[in-house]
Amino acid sequence: MPPRYSKPPRNTYLLRVVLKGPKPPIWRRFQVSPSMRLSRLHDVLQVVMGWEDSHLHMFTKGRKVFMLPNPWMDDADPFGGPRYLDERKYRIRQLLTREKDWIEYQYDFGDSWDHRITLQKILPRDPAVRLPVCVSGKRTCPPEDCGGIWGFYNMLDILADPDHEEYEEMVEWVGPDFDPEAFSVADVNKKLRAMFGQ
Fold first, then answer.
1. Which pTM does this prediction carry?
2. Pairing relation of β-strands 64-67 and 57-61?
3. CA gap 29, 20 in Å, rounded
4. DSSP sequence for the chain
5. Which of 142, 129, 125 has its CA nearest to residue 25?
6. Where are the domains of the chain?
7. Contact 117, 66 (CB under 8 A)
8. pLDDT tens sequence across 66-114
């Protein structure tokens, strides 16, 4: 008689994403289903971090690179570089299997915003919690197209000096209410509910 296998219990992943470079760090903690595809994890990351999804992105795990197919990019580098895999075909649980596992996520290949996503906890699934959901975070995301980490630091220096010759132009660009310390879990979750039809 063949062995009987019990259905694995449903669970939830508690992930922490940290934007590399800024000090103090910009980070978010959020819960997702481990069965979520990487393409949808990208959508979640855009919302929780505050990006605008106007640039290319990729996930990396070791030497494997996961991204949306692009006509200008072969699925493998003939010089031995990383192989590109279709992120729509892979689920989070295939890359993150135990606590403390991590993957990299890069957004905007020009500004090169690099993130580390760590599986912090594997939690029992709570049917009362609508996934995905953001649970905590610190500091606002840099504006799109600000020139990467050094452009971001330069922007903050200008905004801190009302006498700087570029101050008024910078305020007009980022808006008068830009606050590098601001972050709202409630605002993020409102956007997540709208995106995922909750």
1. 0.89
2. antiparallel
3. 15
4. -PPP-PPPPPEEEEEEEEESS-SS-EEEEEEE-TT-BHHHHHHHHHHHHT--S-S-EEEEETTEEEE---TTS-SB-TTS-PEEEEGGG-BHHHH--STT-EEEEEE-TTTTEEEEEEEEEEEE--TTSPSSEEEEEESPPPPTTS-HHHHHHHHHHHHT-TTSTTHHHHHHHH-TT--TT---HHHHHHHHHHHHT-
5. 142
6. 11-139+183-196, 142-180
7. no
8. 999 876 655 555 455 557 899 999 999 999 999 999 999 999 999 999 9
| 195 phi/psi in degrees, rounded to 5 | -70, -40
106: nearest Cα among 34, 171, 58, 55: 58
Q: Cα–Cα distance between 34 and 14 in angstroms, integer?
A: 9
What homologous superfamily is domain 11-139+183-196 in, according to CATH?
MM3350-like (3.10.290.30)
- Residue tagged 């605002």 (tokens): 187
